[in-house]
Design a protein that fits this description.
The complex is a heterodimer. Chain A is an alpha+beta fold. Chain A contains seven helices and four strands. In chain A, strand 2, helix 6 and strand 3 form a beta-alpha-beta unit. In chain B, the strands form seven sheets. In chain B, strands 2, 3, 4, 5, 6 and 7 form a six-stranded mixed beta sheet that branches. The relative contact order of chain B is 0.11. By secondary structure, chain B is mainly beta. Classes of the chains: A alpha+beta, B mainly beta. At the A-B interface, helix 6 and strand 3 of A face strand 10 and strand 23 of B.
Chain lengths: 198, 434
């Protein structure tokens, strides 16, 4: 019951956002004579959308889920035997300039690995991020290393390699916009995004 | 000083009217003592029509001022405003302590074109140093003419080529009406005027790099949901996808002869430096390390690449030769040195130099290894040399905004270019257009 309610809460904003994503946007030229404006493509715009606060990670992933497939609420019941809460935790945080997964996140990763092992059709995208300090391309490298680190842990615990996709956004997509230790800590992260549930 | 700011504000409003996008303004945050006193008299106008809306003397004054090498006399301190070389009273200018004087005029021709003439005088010797006549086809080219005048004055008085008639590219991020991030690749004059977005996207844009002829930009775009490298003709807008491998496609850098592109790929494991032949798209792998190798830049001779690597634990700068793939570590001072930029003569390397929580721009002399920190802010990144090597433009953070700044290579003069809306980042100074 509880799970069903959660699913509804997640699905409703998703429909709204999906509508936004497919609506025509204003990204075409602004009378500057540019030939090559990019239209937001619609197909993948739902993925990895992040916003505001600490727990926004999980709502962002919910968008990805529903945006990508026609899920009914039963499909979202990622788990019916486990305490589902762990599967809803989908952000792993890191220390500065480090990519080692801290022991406090092992339980969460194990839960996702188990789910992936039990659902061979499921796919996740591991989005690696860095804080704003230092250079941007080095931070792209760092974000990828963090994503790979989470992928390795998931693999060791049962996820198949073809279920895992790593992409690094470096410092380009912060969730916290401050220029302080607190914001930096929130931005050094890997987001686990389900692109296919089963 | 206040007057200079006010003038910029006026220019700003003009620009806002013409293009709704962002406009940069310049504040000089630190000047130099001993800058050369010069006066640029407002240019005369001879023509049947309205005066053109471009004030050449004002643009030249601003150019010379922000180079830090000149101290222009404010217009209100001028005792006379001659526009004809024969009407100059040198004694007037000597009294004011002015060493060099510029007078000029603009004339309209019958077919709506302009003739711009100026003369540069040595005030103490009462002699002409140089002068030139320009035929200008349209009003919108008058700003360019003004920058050319600045370049001629700069070179005549300092003996080195000016870089006023050049351009910069940079990335901006703002929020659209729906709150969605919006990334743009902008091209503007070196003084920040006339920015034009050559690409808009809802996904991140990164790492612009100019082709050596100044006609194209290479950059990273996440538009397909993954990073890919594109090149784009700046004038025509025509673009080509160059690299879209699995994993990272990053940090493109054109070779000095324009035939190759250095780039970073992680398709074979960790990020490494590759070189792509742009004619046949063939890839050569240059580095192999378990660490992050990234941010390649070519030496001016094109025989080696300087890059960032954390193979030693922390990011430091290294150099690899193309022929033998010999790798040599370049930086040892400080715990974090990344994102190299090489001066046009190849003698200096600028970098992001981090210690503690401060990331500042430093330059190192490659001959003797001497390192100098040039900035005193704390989130500085992406240094890029002016094509004459006199200034370094970089990005920093000020009052919660990403702003562009420029600093002279000796660290004595700094200026800030503040964007009206959104954040500016990753500035790259275009080469001289051949």
């Amino acid at each position: 019951m509880n799970i069903l309610r959660k699913a509804l809460i997640l699905v409703v904003p998703v429909m709204f956002l999906a509508g936004c994503a497919s609506a025509p946007t204003d990204t075409t030229d602004e009378g500057l004579g540019t030939d090559s404006s990019i239209e937001s493509s619609g197909t993948e715009t739902g993925f990895g959308t992040t916003s505001g606060s600490d727990d926004s990670g999980s709502s962002a992933q919910a968008m990805g889920l529903s945006g990508s497939s026609d899920i009914s609420s039963s499909a979202f019941s990622l788990d019916d035997s486990d305490p589902a809460n762990l599967l809803n935790k989908r952000v792993i945080y890191f220390d500065f300039d480090r990519s080692k997964v801290k022991s406090e996140y092992e339980e969460i990763i194990a839960a996702h690995a188990t789910y992936l092992a039990n659902n061979p059709g499921a796919r996740v995208r591991l989005e690696g991020h860095a804080d704003e300090r230092g250079s941007r391309e080095y931070n792209i490298g760092l974000g990828e290393r963090r994503g790979n680190s989470v992928a390795r842990h998931l693999g060791l615990q049962g996820a198949a390699r073809n279920q895992l996709d790593v992409i690094s956004y470096g410092e380009e997509r912060p969730v916290a916009l401050g220029h302080d230790e607190e914001s930096w800590a929130l931005n050094r992260r890997v987001e686990i995004v389900y692109t296919k549930q089963k | 000083m206040l007057k200079v700011i006010l003038r910029h504000l006026l220019l700003l409003m003009v620009c806002v009217g013409s293009s709704a996008q962002a406009v940069l303004t310049i504040e000089i945050t630190q000047g130099v003592k001993g800058a050369m006193p010069i006066a640029v008299v407002p240019f005369g106008w001879e023509g049947p029509l309205h005066k053109p809306p471009v004030d050449i003397a004002e643009i030249v004054t601003a150019d010379l001022h922000r180079s830090g090498r000149f101290s222009p006399l404010p217009e209100y301190d001028m005792l006379a405003r001659p526009t004809d070389p024969s009407k100059v009273n040198f004694q007037n200018w000597r009294t004011l302590g002015v060493e060099s004087l510029v007078v000029g005029k603009i004339r309209a021709t019958t077919n709506n074109q302009y003739i711009v003439q100026f003369v540069l005088f040595d005030v103490f010797r009462s002699t002409q140093i140089t002068g030139q006549t320009f035929h200008v086809g349209k009003v919108s080219d008058l700003r360019k003419t003004a920058h050319q005048v600045s370049d001629i004055i700069y070179e005549a008085l300092l003996g080195e080529r000016g870089a006023f008639d050049t351009r910069i590219a940079y990335v901006t991020q703002s929020r659209g009406p729906s709150g969605k991030p919006r990334y743009s690749l902008q091209v503007a004059d070196a003084d920040g005027h006339g920015p034009q977005a050559i690409l808009n996207s809802s996904e991140p844009l990164m790492s612009p790099s100019w082709s050596p002829d100044g006609k194209k930009l290479a950059y990273v775009s996440f538009e397909g949901g993954r990073p890919a490298i594109y090149t784009q003709d700046v004038r025509l807008g025509k673009r080509e996808k160059i690299s879209g491998f699995r994993g990272i496609n990053g940090a493109p850098a054109w070779s000095p002869d324009g035939t190759r592109l250095a780039l970073v790929l992680s398709r074979d494991g960790s990020p490494d430096i590759y070189v792509m032949n742009l004619l046949n798209k063939k890839l050569t792998r240059l580095t192999r390390s378990y660490g992050i190798d990234t941010e390649p830049v070519w030496t001016p001779r094109g025989d080696a690449i300087v890059f960032t690597s954390d193979r030693g634990g922390k990011p430091q700068l290294y150099k690899v030769t193309l022929a033998g793939r010999q790798v040599q570590r370049l930086t040892f001072e400080g715990e974090y040195n990344a994102r190299a930029a090489l001066s046009p003569d190849g003698r200096l390397v600028a970098m992001v130099h981090g210690s503690g929580n401060r990331y500042r721009i430093a330059v190192m002399d490659l001959e003797n290894g001497a390192m100098q920190v040039l900035t005193d802010t704390s989130l500085d990144e992406s240094p890029s040399f002016a094509p004459n090597g006199s200034m370094i433009i970089y990005a920093t953070e000020s009052r919660n905004k990403g702003v562009l700044s420029a600093v002279s290579v000796d660290g004595r003069v700094r200026q800030r270019l503040v964007l009206q809306e959104g954040d500016a980042r990753e500035p790259v100074w275009a080469p001289y257009v051949r």
